[in-house]
Amino acid sequence: MGLEMPPIKLIIAYVLDWILIIAIAAVGGGISFITPYHRPFSLVDLAISYPYVDHDVISNAALVLISLIAPAIIIVIVTALFVPAFSRSTIRDKRYWQRKLWEFNAGWMGLALSYALALFVTQGIKNLLGKPRPDLLARCQPDLTDIAAHVVGGYGQDISQRWTLVSSSICTQTDKKRLDEGFRSFLSGHSSMSWAGLLYLSLWLASKFNMLIPYLGHGTPSPKRNDDDEDAEQEARDRAAAPPVFGAIIVLVPLCVAFYICSTRYVDFKHQGIDIFSGSVLGIMTAWIGFRWYHGSLTRGQPWTWSPRSKDRAFAVSSGTHGWIGERMVRRERVQRNREVDVEAGGSGDPIVK
Q1: What is the widest separation between alpha-carbon atoms in the chain?
Q2: CA-to-CA distance for 257 and 199, rounded, in angstroms?
Q3: How many Cα atoms are found within 13 Å in the side-chain-facing hemisphere of 75?
Q4: At 255, is the secondary structure helix, strand, or coil?
Q5: pTM of the full predicted structure?
Q6: Angle between helices 273-294 and 94-129 (to 10 degrees)
Q7: Where are the transmembrane segments (predicted)?
Q8: Which residue range is the domain that position 41 belongs to?
Q9: Are 304 and 320 found together in one domain?
């Protein structure tokens, strides 16, 4: 059994997709090395007066391990063992192995896209806004002997010099990296990254194990409740059934981990509630984008992975065409039309070969 190699043009197209995703992530990571905007702050603001915690409950390395590397490994294991379904008849079919390789690629590309987008947007917003963290004053170690030299605004001078807004020039902190991190509160990177990776994993697991809320499709008529039409009602109910609860638990575990990671940022005094909430919303959005880019809708009972693009439409497609699937869709429609014509002519409905 030899695997048929995809067209070179299509391979190049997906390699470029990977390069672009990696580039987005690299730019996002590079932004973290740029000095952020330092928003003025007040020395009497209790919201930024929390103590500095040197060791986070979830470090950056642990975050990447939990929210990116672990989901990638799980995707590999599940795809290798369960996707597509194994049988003795399919193991000899080259299409089975081609499908498995595509599932690997699509699963990883969706995860990478979700994570790269979340990283890029998170780091960009952090640097643009420069919001002080709850532990900023502990990081800053302000010089209280000459507050007036650093005042940039506020109308509390008549009460006390401390009732003003000061710039970061008042800080005596010699560790520039620690001080800069004090102005990256909004939005929470741990929150956006955890949801981007772990929610994607939940959606992916739900699609592969068919852990979906039963769905009959748009426009499916609901039978009227009356004694004369019990068969119609039963027929509608028999179209779907709820999946087992243990499957739902498998899908929910990554979400619980994401919630826990978010909570640690509040406990470590690294973010306020709005920072964590906003980061979570961003991660949820990118996870949905990454999943739907390569998979069908879970809410409509379409959990499968989309097919690869056609070789003739690997890079671009014209409007008014069949989209990115190209000649395969045209061929299938032609076969379907031939089958319909054959049936009308009294044939068996098998595809007509011309």
Answers
A1: 98
A2: 10
A3: 28
A4: helix
A5: 0.82
A6: 150
A7: 12-37, 57-83, 104-125, 195-216, 245-267, 273-294
A8: 8-214+240-308
A9: no
